[in-house]
Amino acid sequence: xxxxxxxxxxxxxxxxxxxxxxxxxxxxxxxxxxxxxxxxxxxxxxxxxxxxxxxxxxxxxxxxxxxxxxxxxxxxxxxxxxxxx
Length: 85
Fold this sequence. Notes:
Elements: H1 2-23, H2 34-84
């Protein structure tokens, strides 16, 4: 039983060692021009804008509709009392 656990642990160690070696940085002799940098910046800005607009669409508009409905309900309740007096 102990021998089987040792083999299992050794297998996990190999996986961890392989992942650690793959995570080590490797020197790349490459030039990244300004066009690629500007493209990356533009992509990040577009992603951030899309996330913000998604939040606005999913959060702000339902809240806005609830506030508008509440205001309309309040106006409905005040309108009959004004006509009675």
